[in-house]
Amino acid sequence: MLFAQRADVCLAVACSVPWRKMSVGFVGASDGWQDLSQHYEMEWEYTRAENGNVALTGEIDLAACNGEFVLAIGFGSNSFEAGQVAVSTLSEKYELVRERYVAHWKSWHSTLIPLDSPQRDRDLYRASMTVLRGHESKDLLGGTIASLSVPWGFNKGDDDLGGYHLVWPRDLVQVAGGFLAAGAVIDALRVLRYLEATQEAEGNWAQNLWLNGEAYWNGVQMDETALPILLLDLVRRKAPDTIEAMDRWWPMVGKAAGYIVRNGPVTQQDRWEEDAGYSPFTLATEIAALLAAADVADLAGNADTAKFLRETADSWNDNVERWCYAEDSDLARKFGVDGYYVRIAPPETGSATGILQGLVPIKNRVAEQSIESAVHVISPDALALVRFGLRAPDDPRILNTVKVIDGLLRVDFPQGPCWYRYNGDGYGEHEDGSPFDGTGVGRPWPLLTGERAHYEIAAGNRQSAESLMAALEHFTESSRLIPEQVWDSSDLPHRELFRGKATGAACPLVWAHAEYVKLRRSLLEGEIFDQPPQPVERYQVQKKTAAHVDWRFNNRLSSMPQGMVLRLTLLMHASVHWSFDNWVTSHDTNTRDTDLGAYIADLPTWELFAGDRICFTFHWPEADRWEGKDFEVIVEPDGLQRKDVFAIDIMSAHSMLR
Question: Distance (Å, rounded) from C-alpha 462 to C-alpha 455?
Fold first, then answer.
């Protein structure tokens, strides 16, 4: 028996014939691979290694066993448990163990919707479903990690504990969507219940977490709070007979929606876990989630809360372009468009004058390349405005952005097109092909080919979507595993890097396989499978606009259009002391509780004229103190393109009240 022990797990290897030689050792140190590399035979012998990532090497006398042997590998919390698993497995006939194993997989696959296309050159449907299910924990059901791989793991040390062996709520929701698309409803429900059990007390989810629910990184990504709401809504609509009444799920949804209204619309990190600010992807998920949560609130008997959620969504939706759409920039002139959605707009400060002057950090680049103008950084993330139903695929602003995206980010390979996450991305190998080590050059992501195919479906371009799906299939090689990134430069055989094929990043990327499965279902039905219908109906069909503008401590607007209500959204109860005539007269209005941890007060500003000023301050009754500062909002003419100035603080919303 051969043992390798790490702090959290023990590995045991048993063989049906005696070992000739055995070696265990730390990766990169005295292990069997190093031994063979240096001596072309095993000269170092060990029976045990502890406390590290380990490699095991064994030599078996094939002549003595006539070339046949059975190897059993067991895992456990200690050597006894791992050894028991390995030995008990070895005692059974291999053929019987294999037969039972294969039968279980065949049984599960037989329950799936037959989305297969045998005539396709490389059909990934069954392989993708196996990837999704294979990455789910066998002990903590529903918990599904991002990948069994470690990006550039061959270049990592023992201090990189996480790799992609963690649960990202965003990826997890995508996996559940893949299960639903394939008809694996029970599997999707396991994911939903896992999310319910791992929700944080404030209503959000950790940036990523170990399978047991312990948070690993501590960033706040607002899309990871919005997406679980959209998952519940998807299950409710696609498999209504399998899920309990919405009053059963309102506690989870209500807490998540409350976190969004208290902390949005800005996010500490975008979906690529890098920058703070106004992200089109994050905004799309937040607004869609608020509308979906409103439906759940109605079904749970909370009509007033539902009304507030829809009003907040309307206000944020009205401001997407002001926050994220850049006009009359040098880049717009270069591509012959009047504007486009940026990758992310920074949180505005009191000295900023809008997107055109904003700067964003570029992560994973050397210091002299780590800052860029917001209007010069573009991402396919803007297509989320279509994916989640906020904007039509033929909206001129979307079409403008698609033109810029393709001009800057598209790479054409023999397999088909692929896209970068954004221009200037630093998450990838260096120019010479050496592995990412904290800096590098981002490479194209096949996942984004799948997302672009979904946009083409929305735009009615089925043939384009089919071609993009074929490209996604052919980025996999014979393994049928979709990589996180593909190499976009000349072949480097000595580094095993070939144009259009997987880099040293994660492979498989489970999220990409989920996107592929959803794409198969979307093509079958001729519409985006996981698109929430609420934003489509509200903003594309009804053309709903907001009746109020939303002032909050993390979004202190300085101007508002004529004819609208000024709503003050706070994190604790207050008395609002306000005046429309520069304090010649004044009034007091108490906030009202939304039951979501937010308190609102609507000021009667709809009858004011352009140029009028609203002055206000706050008295906090719980602390019996005044804010000690006056705030002012100027009324603009109705319909004027606003250039509001905001003072944004994206830190914890509770700290905003000081």
Answer: 10
